[in-house]
Amino acid sequence: DLTNGSHDDVLNAEQLRKLLYLLESTEDPVIIERALVTLGNSAAFSANQVIIRELGGIPIVGSKINNPNHSIKEKALNALNNLSVNVENQIKIKIYINQVCEDVFAGPLNSAVQLAGLRLLTNMTVTNDHQHMLNNYITDLFHVLLTGNGSTKVDSSFLSLYDSHVAKEILLRVLTLFQNINNCLEKEGRLAVQPTFTKGSLFFLLYGEECAQKMRALLYHHDADVKEKVTIIPKS
Predict the structure, then answer these.
(1) Which of 2, 43, 125, 134 has its CA 20 to 30 A from that of 141?
(2) Model confidence over 101-112: pLDDT tens digits?
(3) Phi, psi angles (nearest 5°) of residue 59
(4) What is the domain extent for residue 218?
């Protein structure tokens, strides 16, 4: 019943424990995939992110990224992606970063597994804690960005994440991303002069007038944490 869509959106601790036991004990690929989807959906809720970690669920989910079934691998990556929103969960998830990178670059370009892996890597590197783990993969990441399709590349719709109606948790994450990029450019001295960025690049979007307008609007956001983040980010 926990995997057929008839359950409530928010599972309790006992239901999550049963779901993890099911995921660990079965070899049926259909059940594994459905259980991963349910766990991934449940992990969208912050309370469940903590419960799943405390139940020892992260290594159970993480083990499924080794599965040769690409659909199961994708669902496991999606579940880890939602779990990775929690900073304490990231400490346990970081052991999978190297393998995720290898899978992202070894698999077919623009595949569901590649996109799921890139989403997880994005979440894991929003803060500075684990960015160093991608040092050896920068060339490969640029190759994917250059050769991938619209789902893989960054397009102008990315700026919609900076709108005031976006959920606070997402706003804080994209503002932190901007802050980290800005800090790196400052260290390189690139912001001392007016930099020129390639049109269509992430830098072009973030340092363009449209993004500057969105930043100015966020100064009047109702949430204090969002306003604090915006005040320490330069407005073009």
Answers:
(1) 43
(2) 999 998 888 999
(3) -65, -30
(4) 136-235
